[in-house]
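User: If only I could read backbone structure tokens as easily as an amino acid sequence. Underneath my words sits a plain record pairing an amino acid chain with its backbone structure tokens. This is the protein in question:
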Amino acid sequence: SYGDLSKLDPSTVTPQQVFESVCNMRSSKLPDPKVNGNAGSFFKNPVISAEQAEKLISCGANVPHYPQPDGSVKLAAGWLIDQCQLKGYRIGGAAIHRQQALVIINEENASSADIVALAHYVRQQVGEKFDVWLEPEVRFMASKGEVSAVETIG
């Protein structure tokens, strides 16, 4: 039921058609890493309690939300970031993509410090506005191996 997948006939669709449809959707929404370095979706879609979701929804915000089987509610991280008007926002060489708020791009020789600072800023802006604290979806690698992404940007 998502995007271009909803146009496929479930009784005749092949795995190849699903693959091609997903690839087409992703390429239309995400920047080409050959043009602007990026890791795709930078933040996870947050899952919050039903009570917290009800508070957000009752404030009049048209929050895209997706009830989960356990009663929690998933929110669209890109929408939250977009509501903070961060598309195009830049720290050093790192920027929020202008068409997809969920993606941090290397716009101009970004350092790892630029990316961490921008991710921290995004997390703070969304947290302060919505009381929802985003977590990175990407993995953070340091000289001695993987480090906690949440601790790094927190």
The CA atoms of residues 30 and 133 lie 23 Å apart. The first strand starts at residue 37 and ends at 41. The chain has five helices and nine strands. The two ends are 35 Å apart (CA to CA).
